[in-house]
Amino acid sequence: MADNHGFGVDIGGSGIKGGVVDMDTGELVGERYKVLTPQPSTPQACAEAVREVVDNFGWQGPIGVTVPAVVTGGVVRTAANIDPSWIGTDADALFTATLGRDVTVLNDADAAGLAEDRYGAGRDMEGVVLLLTLGTGIGSALLHKGTLVPNTEFGHLQVDGKEAEHRAASSIKDAKGWSYEKWAEQVSRVFREYEKLLWPDLIVVGGGISRKAEKWIPMLDVATPVVPAALLNTAGIVGAAMACGG
């Protein structure tokens, strides 16, 4: 194991992927490895799948693991896109026991925020960086000078009587058949609310729709610079590796 390498695993609703990370550059060392998320996606079933990912690399050191959930003190408090039996699970203890080494568990958006802030779109920003993943819902991560405020759930903020993610998630655009222009109006409405509360210096947007940033970011009517995420599919893995001491 190289001194500057870490290992991260990103648990999603459909896939569990992991890889070795060069902590100097934030790049993966070799290919990532992916398995399907078990159905049902119970904690023990997912832990076994994570072990399969780790064993594929023969990794022996500590590991970071993301889950699509709020995590406090290693305990999962919510369940988004994973089995409800996760709620109340001591994930740190479960993964540590299953894998036989130190494991740090964190929210998936927080992991992406850590990675983008250090290696990606926010790497040269000294102030407050707000990462927002616009997908099925809105995931969020808030960082100040590299320090994470964990478990922000800004997607659930009420904006004019409706949850932010019910206005601005990309899934809403798809469900309603909106044009980029019409959707950008709702995104702007939500982002302006975040601006009033948080005063970010930079907003980084992730999720699949960030790959088409040129179609909608120029339409936003907000004061804060908005840029697409740079790491895309690797951000969760990289941030997980960072969380376990990388």
UniProtKB/TrEMBL annotation:
Q: Which domain of life is it from?
A: Bacteria
Question: What species is given as this protein's source?
Answer: Tsukamurella paurometabola (strain ATCC 8368 / DSM 20162 / CCUG 35730 / CIP 100753 / JCM 10117 / KCTC 9821 / NBRC 16120 / NCIMB 702349 / NCTC 13040)
Q: Name one Pfam family in it.
A: ROK
Q: What is this protein called?
A: ROK family protein
Return the NCBIfam families for the record.
Answer: PolPhglucPhase (NF045942)
Q: Which Gene3D superfamilies match?
A: 3.30.420.40
The family classification in the record reads: Belongs to the ROK (NagC/XylR) family.
